[in-house]
Amino acid sequence: MKKRIIAGLLCLSLMLPLFACGKDSGTNSSQKETGKQSSVKTDSSQGNDNKSGISIASFPDQPKSALESAINAAKLDYAVEIIEYPQNEYENKIKMAFGTDAATDIVLIDGPNVASYATTGVLEPLNSYWPEDDFNDLVESSKSTATYQDKIWCAPLNEANTLLFYNKDVFDELGIVAPTKLEDTWTFDELLEVCEKVTIPGERYAIMPQMFSLANLNEGMTFTQMLWIWMAGGEVLNEDATKADGYFNSEKSKAGIKYYADLFSKGYATTEDVINAYETGKVVMWLNGPWVVGNLARDFPDFNWGATPMPKGERSASGAGSWNLSIAAESSNKEKAWEVIHAITGKEGAAIWCKETGNIPARKSVLDNDKTYSEYPYDIVNEQLQNTAIARPVTPAYPQISEALAKCFAAVAYGEDVDKAVEEATEKMEKALSEVK
Amino acid sequence: MRGKVNRNEQIFGLVFIVPALVIIGIFYVWPAIRLFLLSFTNYNVMSKFGNWVGFKNYASMFSDKEYTNSLLVTIKMALIIVPVQTVLALLFAVAVNREGRIFKFFRTGFFIPSITSFVAVAILWKQLLNPSFGLVNSLLKSLGLPTSQFLSSIPDAFYSVIFVCIWKSWGYFMVIFISGLQDISQDIRDATKIDGANSLEELLFITIPMLKRTILLVVVVTTMDAIKLFVPAYTMTAGGPIGTTTTTVYYLWRKAFRLQEIGSASAMSMILFMLIAIIVIIQFRIGSGDNNE
Amino acid sequence: MNKSKKELFGKIILIFLLFLVFLSILVPYLWTISNAFRFNDEIGVYNNLGVYTFVPKAFTISNFRRMFDQLNMWRIIFNTLLVAFSTTLMSLFINALTGYALGLMNFIGKKFIFALFISMMMFPIEVLIIPLYLTINDLHLNDSYFSLILPFLATPFGIFFMRQFFQNQPKSLGEAAKIDGANQVQIFMKVYLPLAKTPLMTLGLLTFMQQWDSFIVPVTFINDESKLVLQVALTRLSAGLYMTDYGVLFAGVTLSIIPILIIYLLTQRHIQENIAMTGIK
How many Cβ atoms sit within 10 Å of the Cβ of residue A368? Predict the structure, then answer.
């Protein structure tokens, strides 16, 4: 009896590959039905092969819906497919795609990595596509991110900055008033006092001093962790971004890392991997970017939040440089790809994207046209961008630097000796820097 | 076997082997040679270019603390998984290798994790071990036992991963032991029964010696599996916290594909290969020693 | 009397212990599967080991619906089955053919080739993943089903396993057929292959399980969403950092568990017997 079942299964399996060939078109149509697979706006010719449309590589934390709104507003007459890779995997995936000549037409690239991609020759310079007066609409920091060795490599989705978000209900209940002006911002000591006040041991933590829980390893972590070094007056690399020794392991840098480690050892921050820790009240403060505003409005509309400028150690510091759109050098459709990039990052597109995601625009015209960007909390963001924002170092070795830094911060958060962790990280950075010289 | 070679057979023999030769040649032999060559270069996937750097990758490998740590993690995992899993599988094989529906039921049940994919098992346990809503902490709490952060604490993450690996695989090796047990003839068992040996004595002095070959096989396969661990690090912990669960395969995979350091990752793979070669040689030695007896 | 009572008592204790172990397997599955049918706000709420720990209070299939919205699940299931079945079938044929040639035929170079094949057992896929990836690229097979199928069409273990079987078959059968006028191909197809039903079944099951379980290969070789396989898709479901839709995650895990569990329960005696065969060398 049972032998028959197996025999039957095998027969079925024999036929499957046959089905496969005949059915391919069939699956495509079912894809259309079930799938919000992500084709935005398809024209009548519905060829569904990527050749006629344009593909974009992205990841889930860049809201697809907002990209789609910007693209739809431009009324392009071909399909734009947004392919999402998991965030922790994103960098691997696009590098592999570049390596196999299978890259999407448009690739999302993080600011400090632009140099490392540009040097390997996988990106198309944008100079010939982008009219100069339109390029000059960008704010200065975004211009410098997009430029490497005198060429323009990418168009910024938005500018970025960081704020210290807090749970307003908790602050109100405890009578804590957070500063809203840069000059009144908390010092490192004041921040510790606030942490002490809001912490309920074992139940509620004061602060998440980096973008995600420590179970993650991606650029978002580095983006926020690096700030503790800068706020303490330290540096990651020297000005030419060629040396880590003497900078990353300087006393000031170490003081910043030590401060970060203490947040964990004093029980103000946790190594626990909780999703939505801030939104669910498990953590009171969160060091993150203005996109949190958009995310909260969309997913936790009832959450009562507030934002305060970055705290001040030896000096003030806040993050800068965000994700950008680049054209893959091997794309067969560069003209269309540029149209799509322009649809998303041009004046109209940027306004839509920033409105929906809560991001701060990288274009002066958008900043000027919309009053929102001069109101709380964007007034803080603008002030910080002008006065305290520091861009991450630009070097082809940046991926290694970033990984070493994030691992160093994770190590000290778990209680490893700061000196030891910093020395190890410095060694790794020096090695990576020497490789690209 | 040692007969004369017939011309017709010579031709067809070679023809029959061609498909396998092509596949093994392209997808095993050539990559194996290439791995060796790559380990002396600084090849970059994106620019598809690399320079010969001699023994640099090998020299710098052992000063890479993360790499040596990952080797240590892998070896430590193997040293725990192999004995625990083998003993468990053997004990339960003896326990359920009996007549009766109930034991058949257990044989079926214990095998279920083996047919579930490793990724599904890893995700399933990641959720069960979730500190805030997972079932395990709730259970511990209701039993009055201390709770844990499991995957985000040291060293609990390490042991959690080991637990999950064993949970997934022990049933598989139990089945292999059962087949070994069924080959031990009933006469031998009955003889020991008459001698008045108790079950423990029977296990130690009859069953285990008779199962020597099966045990060797299981130990080798389990060791290889432990050395190749990738899924739990990828799915459950991303190798964290701070490298506690970073296995060598996971580390070199990230190094190759995320940091694009193909050369040094290849050198690291070579070390892994050597480790496997040593195990295979030991197995061969023990195995052939057995035959001579 | 006393002795049999003691034996009975021992048996009851044994069954009780085995049952506890069985629970440690059953409970995780039940919890996961029940969570797949809960609304998100109910997940993790009833952990007190009551009825609702294992049965959703408010039953829903919305998680599955959202999963099919987020990922093209039909396509993914189709991909997974296509790759697993076609690899299994084709590799069975090639491994059997090679095992037969190496086990029963005489030709010069046989020993060397066999040694070469066997030595490749020392290179598991995890060790070869980097050069294999580059080779797949060189052949322009990246992002294709072929990259998941071709490298596994002949495996050192499969060849070894089939050779062990054919080696123990009598040569006289083939010689008799030859006298009747059969050529070498017919001898293999008509005389020896039908004998190999049992080992083929075993090897087939093993290959299928390996392909179903395969992860490092698809996660490395496949970037194209339309070629995604189930195991990789599962990790995508849990990939959101800002938000994880737990209901969908549990639905995905359930989807990957249930079908194979049903097949197993229907055919479990055969599967266990066949797996056991691999232990006999």
Answer: 11
Could you tell me where the DSSP H helices lie in chain B? Answer: 7-24, 30-38, 56-61, 65-96, 101-115, 118-128, 135-142, 156-183, 186-194, 199-201, 208-210, 212-227, 231-232, 248-257, 262-292
Tell me if chain B has a CB within 8 Å of the CB of C13: no
Give B71: exposed, middle or buried? Use CB within 10 Å, 0-12, 13-18, 19+: buried
Main-chain dihedrals φ then ψ at residue A159, nearest 5 degrees: -90, 165
Inter-chain contact B241–A120, Cβ cutoff 8 Å?
A: no
pLDDT confidence band for B194 (50 / 70 / 90): low
Q: Give the pLDDT score at A48.
A: 40
B241–A424: do the CB atoms touch at under 8 Å?
Answer: no
Residues 6+ away with beta carbon under 8 Å from B219: B82, B86
Query: Which amino acid is present at A269?
Result: A
- In CATH, what number does A163-319+392-436 get? 3.40.190.10
Interface of C with B in 168-197 (CB under 8 A): 184-185, 188
Taking only residues 9 to 48 of chain C, the set having a beta carbon closer than 8 angstroms to any beta carbon of chain A reads none
**Residue among B95, B82, B145, B110 nearest B282 (CA):** B82
Domain ranges of chain A: 39-160+321-390, 163-319+392-436
**B-chain residue closest to C211, CA distance:** B117
Please check whether residue B70 is in contact with residue B243, taking contact to mean a CB–CB distance below 8 angstroms. yes
Distance of alpha carbon B112 from alpha carbon C22, whole angstroms: 10
The number of distinct structural domains making up chain C is: 2
- Residue B4: per-residue pLDDT: 57
C73:A34 CB<8 A: yes
Measured between alpha carbons, how far is A307 from A296 in angstroms, rounded to an integer? 13
Return the structure tokens found at A13.
């399996």
Whether B70 and B248 have beta carbons less than 8 Å apart is answered as yes
State the Cα–Cα distance between residues B59 and B86, nearest whole angstrom.
37
For residue A317, pLDDT over 70 is answered with yes
Q: Classify residue C172: in a domain, yes or no.
A: yes
User: What local confidence, expressed as pLDDT, does residue C112 receive?
Assistant: 93
pLDDT tens sequence across B100-144: 889 999 999 999 999 999 999 999 999 999 887 889 988 888 888
Residue A89 has pLDDT above 90, yes or no: no
Q: Which residue has the tokens 């987020």?
A: C70
Quick one: B137 and B29 in the same domain? no
- Give A39-160+321-390's CATH code, choosing from 2.40.30.20, 2.60.120.10, 3.40.190.10, 3.40.50.12780: 3.40.190.10
A308 sits in which H/E element: strand A305-308
Residue type, A148: Y
